[in-house]
Amino acid sequence: MYKIATSHEFDAPAAVLWDFLQDFAHIERWWPRHDPAVQIDRVDMEGEGIGMIRHIYNKGYDAPVSERLDALDPQKLTYSLSIVGNKPMGLTHYQATGRVEALPGDRSRLNYASEFMTESGKPDDAEAWLRMAYELMFAGLAAAVTRRAGQ
After folding, report:
1. Angle between helices 124-149 and 14-22 (to 10 degrees)
2. pLDDT, tens digit, for every residue of 20-38?
3. Whether this model's pTM surpasses 0.90
4. What region does 81 belong to: left with phi over 0, alpha with psi -120 to 50, or beta?
5. Quick one: how many helices (H) and strands (E) in the chain?
6. Which domain holds residue 49?
7. Is the terminal CB of the chain with fewer CB neighbours within 10 Å at N or C?
8. How many structural domains compose the chain?
9. Of 116, 118, 111, which is closest to residue 97 (Cα–Cα)?
10. Residue 88 and residue 90: Cα distance in Å, rounded?
């Protein structure tokens, strides 16, 4: 089992950041639209609430990345998800937990931790792809909270 732990600070209150993350069905509200690395074409939803699955169809990828919401705790500002079905980059297991933390001065931090396994037992390619996806997640969320502040 391989693990990644990362975090990013945002110039927005925790409640604003949480609003985007807890809305699991609408990742396109905050995912970067203009980065060519991973662009969302569409998202199909299956189910509601805990256990719902968002099938994310990305431009240039043959199969969707299907993420299942495993936990959502609005009091602790935490959520967990797993990739199910066809997994990208040779992943055989993936689970992640995000935790929003309030910081002084109406700022916040997203702490993101994941664990994964790969078919080859070699994590390098999968880890590089996951870290790239996390950077896109952070960039998209930063832009979204900035847009929200401008409203």
Report:
1. 120
2. 999 999 999 999 988 777 8
3. yes
4. beta
5. 2, 7
6. 2-149
7. C
8. 1
9. 111
10. 6
